[in-house]
Amino acid sequence: MLVLITGITGFVGSHLAEYYLNNTDYTVCGTRRIRSRMDNIEHILDKITLIECDITDQASVQQALGSAEPDIIHHLAAQSFVPTSFNCPTATIETNVIGTLNILEGSLRVEIDPVIQIAGSSEEYGAVKVEETPITENNPLRPLSPYGVSKVACDLLGIQYFHSYGMPIVVTRAFNHTGPRRGEVFVCSDFAKQIVQAELSQNIKSVIKHGNLDAIRDFTDVRDMVRAYALSVTKPNCIGKSMNICSGESNSYSMKDVLHYLTNMTTASIVTELDETRNRPSDVPVLIGDCSRFKQRTGWKPKIKFARTLLDIMNYWRNRLESSWVSNGV
Known about the structure:
By secondary structure, the chain is an alpha/beta fold. The chain has two domains: about 1-180 and about 220-245, NAD(P)-binding Rossmann-like Domain (Rossmann fold), CATH 3.40.50; about 185-215 and about 250-290 and about 305-320, UDP-galactose 4-epimerase, domain 1 (Alpha-Beta Complex), CATH 3.90.25. It contains ten helices and 14 strands. The strands form four sheets. Strands 3-2-1-4-5-6-11 form a seven-stranded parallel beta sheet, sandwiched between helices. It has a three-stranded mixed beta sheet with strand order 12-9-14. The longest helix is centred in the last third of the chain and has 22 residues, at about 305-325. The radius of gyration is 20 Å and the shape is globular. The protein starts with a strand and ends with a helix. The model has no long low-confidence stretch (mean pLDDT about 95).
């Protein structure tokens, strides 16, 4: 079996590659852009095959699919940072929607029949009413960002290609997931990095900047999330369905809670400060999911506690920043 992971150099892609290498005998390959950073996969470069590919270029995608002939495709490559989608809506739509269309069309044109996972997002639900939580797959889609809109389009394209061409498509709507190697622009990683910088600076007091702390999110560890992704493509009863993947109400926290947990993991003296530039033009107040459908069809459930996830993020930044300070002679 050969697994192709688009966006393998990214946060989730690198963890998914690790999962397959550690738990299966599958051959793992992945697409990368020429400018992609390799930090996340340096430790597994000798165990995977990389294919240079721009997912917005149809010919490039078709060539990659034809050369790899994968049995499974996990389509993770995307512009995934919600605030960036407000500043670069065209690039977000092009990368996410056209990229997904190229994967689907490319599979048809090179006449391969892989199981394809389309990685959607809880941001598709958008303006959720309090009485609608926990959110099921039947909830209306009311996206509040260009990113959310792009993921709705990808979701619908996947289901449409399943119905139109009989392609084995699995659509997952992942709620917030985090863990070590998460990009520093994402909230848990952003807070952790600032706190570790405070530890290293040894200032009397360090300021941690934040945006809206009232938003409530359902968090899953990325290592549980990629286990769910790998499981989703092995279950015939997942084909042609859109399914939430999340931890549920037990792992739902406000951003204020997240900041509190992280500051309690350090002895550094911390003060917090609102930075208005970190607020979004429109924000989703509550995203708490119900993934009963996915659990019933696969038997999956999360294993890693949120406290462990946050500690692992803190230690990731401690190792990374301490090494940087030592190498720079600080």
